[in-house]
Structures are given as structure tokens and as C-alpha cells.
Amino acid sequence: MKKRRCIIGQSGGPTVAINSSLAGVIDGAIASSMYERIYGMRNGIEGLLDLQIVNLSERFTTLDLVERLRKTPAMYLGSCRYKLDTNDTETLSKIFSILENFQIDDFFYIGGNDSMDTILKLSDYGKQIDSPIRFIGIPKTIDNDLVGTDHTPGFGSAAKYIATTMLEVMYDCAIYNKPSITIVEIMGRNAGWLTAAAALAKTEAMEGVDLIYLPELAFDVDQFLNDVDYILQTKKKQVLVAVSEGIKDKKGNYIQDGEISGQVDAFGHISRSGAGKALEKIAANHFQCKVRSVEINVLQRSCMHCASETDLKEAFLIGRSAVGKALEGNNGIMLTYERVPGNSYQVRIGTVDVHESANKERLVPREWINKEGNHVNGTMINYLTPLIQGEVMLEYKGGVPSYLPLM
Description:
Site (Important for catalytic activity): 140
Shape: elongated
Organism: Velocimicrobium porci
Pathway: Carbohydrate degradation; glycolysis; D-glyceraldehyde 3-phosphate and glycerone phosphate from D-glucose: step 3/4
Order of helices and strands: EHEHEHHHEHEHEHEHEHEHEEHEE
Catalytic activity: beta-D-fructose 6-phosphate + diphosphate = beta-D-fructose 1,6-bisphosphate + phosphate + H(+)
Subunit structure: Homodimer.
């Protein structure tokens, strides 16, 4: 039987777990004994079009190297944000010509919503031209907003970082006996999953974050001031608030400080920030006490020092499973996590047609947010808690973690 060849790419924003999925694909391909060559495309589709293709079979010759890759943050192969145009048959034809020249049988792409759009368009075009190449999407995003999967690789570690950081901010806030308000802005354009993870910053010693506002609900500034005032008057002097970067008022206007930055990526996503700073100014003017805002921004994306071992193990498993799905003849699919019903947390790997996931967003259900709209409830806590379990043991050199160099 003729040995197969595959190629792997990574796309979108970095996470702690995306290289674990890459390691899983490599490990699965080697273990199957069905592949003579495993290629990687540097910087995703952009690199493929520029023939920036590397032979991963020659680079990962030992299990130790695969394990080091599993514990390296960000994206070993680099990334891109490249939007394919279905009407641009010249580019699509060029991509397939390159894949045919390298005798590629299976194409694996690891990424989020926009990456699944790429898998959709390539698999559809491949079917139009009767190409035998199989296109498999492997999910990844800290936003946790992919439709069709219980959660996404990378989210658990980002959630663990948010929970840990909010707990430490809480300790910082608690040392003074004076009224203060701290507002933490967390990534989340339309989906509030990551901001909701702030609710996990609760221990026997600390009561937890006081207020959480997600973009799924309209944000009311007057209600926000009332919520803060109630806590200051009846509960404690230090108030800790978590807000999603994408909170909007009932008219759909973003709560932000000043003008939009104007930065737009290839998929039309506008760079927004400033919700925390805007609320800082409003609260300072209203309460006349110490108010500060913190924007966490990208810090949780490559936080391997605070990674969830559950996240990394599942990411490796889903990458490894992708190889099996390709060998079974699947095409135009995205791998998924399916939570197994029961008292103990377990997941199994499933698949979904990429048409059912690409270009869609999975938002936080209204019933997972409290009635007042300023926090989450027990259903969300139960959903989140298993995803942040376990700590990753890292190698250190010179006092800092030792990772593989990125390509």
C-alpha cells in the first residue's frame, strides 16, 4: 500500500494548547505507520502560497521532541489571518497545485472560526474539482465560541489564567481599608466565555469577583453604578468587576474609551478596547474614590506557566484523533469534544460537518447568567470547573521556562 503524505497548518491567534494539537497530529501520523512524510506550512495558507513548507518528519524524530512541542506555547509553525475568496479560483487552483506537487493526501488546519472557514472553502473547492485530498479542521480558540463542540482547545488554560489572575488581583485589592473599585477588561468580542471564567476566582479565603458583565446582554451604565453602589454600601469596601471587551448598550453601541482603533484584520474583525477605561472614568466621577482599570488583553493566550493539564491532554488527543478521521476517509469536517453525561467529567472526540460550524458563533446561554445580568450562575461554574484542572510540569532554564524555538 502506498504511504500517505499530510500537511499541517496553524492559523489565527496563539494559545497554550495549539502546539499540543500539532504534537498530537504528528504523533498520530507516526504511530499509524501510514505516512511517509509529514509537512508543515509556515504561517498557514500564506506560507503555503509562498512555498514555505517544512518537513516535520525530519524535525520530530523522538518522543522527547514531541513532548517538548506539547508544552510550548503560541504556534510553532507561525500563523496568519488569510481569508480565502471562493471567487478567486486562481488562488484556489494554485493551492491545490502546490498540494498536488507535494503529493498531499491529508490537510490538517488548526484554528478557530476563520480557520474553519478556510477548511470549508478548500473542501468545497476540492469536491468541485474532484480532488482526493481530505481537509480536516482541528478547533482552537481561547474565545470558546466555535459551534458544534462542548469547548475548544486553548480555552481551559486561558480560563485558568483568568481565574488565577483575578484571584491575585482580589488579594491585591483587599489590603487597604478604604473604598476602591477595580475593573478588569477581558477578551471577548461577542462571546463572554472567557470573562465568565473570572467567576472561578473564589476560594475559602476569598468571596470571589463581585460583578461580571458579558457581551451577550445589553450593558446599562446606570445599573452598573447601582450594582457597585449596593456592594459598597452593604457588603464591603473593595469592589472587583470583570467586563468583556465587547460589552454594548441596548442600542448596540460599544462601551469604550474614545474612538475605535480602526485596525481591521483580513476577516473584518475590528480591534476594540477601552471598555474598562471608560467604566473607570465613569465610576471615578460618580463615586469619588480610588478606581482603576486593568486590561488583560493578550496575556492569557500563551500562559504556559499557568496552563491546564486537562486542556493540553485533550488538545493532544483531538490532534491525534484527527489523523484517524482522515484515514477513515472523512473530508470537510471539524473535530469536536463531546461531554459524556455523568457525575465525573469525561469527553469523547466527535466530528461535525464544517458547514455547521464555520462562520458561526456560540454564545453564552442566557440561562447561564444570573437574573440580574451582573454575574454567572452555578451552571456556568459546573461547566467551567473541570476545564481548568491539573498543572503542567515545565522544564526551567535560567529561572524561566524552556520552550522549543518557534519556526
